[in-house]
Write a structure and sequence with these properties.
Low-confidence stretches: none
CATH superfamily: Cytidine Deaminase, domain 2
Helix content: 25-40%
Strand content: 15-25%
CATH class: Alpha Beta
Largest sheet: 5 strands, mixed
Order of helices and strands: HEEHEHEEH
Number of strands: 5
Bound molecules: tetrahydrodeoxyuridine
Structural class: alpha+beta
Shape: globular
Number of helices: 4
Number of domains: 1
């Protein structure tokens, strides 16, 4: 488990990443900061499109940046979304992407609580 300083650093990076969100259709900005097993941090934001279904979430942006740089193992992700007054749990598609690359004790850091992937995606599908 990450110590509380590392968790709040990761959350601060997610809040910063949220400033880069391209969310002109929903107005809902999301930022994520993903910690690799080797200690690097990759950030991501949501990027929307006029063809709505092409939108990508902040979490998957961060994962795909990291994976395309060669990282395949991850410890934790912090997520910050909306007006920051409430927690922003990851959508189902992002949870399944986490399942592909993370152990079930992967930590998902939200505004008011930390969850494991096991808690947020029980009885999950994997090949
Ligand atoms: N969004 C994320 O970035 N992450 C999530 O886990 C949930 C939703 C984005 C997608 C869209 O740009 C906006 O939030 C509203 O759904």
């Amino acid at each position: 488990m990450l110590n509380s300083d590392s968790m709040s650093d990761l959350m601060q990076m997610a809040i910063q990443a949220r400033n880069q969100a391209y969310c002109k259709y929903s107005g809902f900005a999301v930022g994520a900061a993903l910690l690799t097993e080797s200690g690097e941090i990759y950030t991501g934001c949501n990027i929307e499109n006029a063809s709505y279904s092409l939108t990508i979430c902040a979490e998957r942006t961060a994962f795909f940046k990291a994976i395309s740089d060669g990282h395949k193992k991850f410890k934790a992700i912090a997520i910050a979304g909306g007006n920051l007054s409430e927690s922003c749990p990851p959508c189902g598609a992002c949870r399944q992407v986490m399942r592909e690359f993370c152990e079930e004790d992967f930590e998902i850091i939200l505004k008011d609580r930390i969850y494991t992937l096991r808690e947020l995606l029980p009885v999950s599908f994997a090949l």
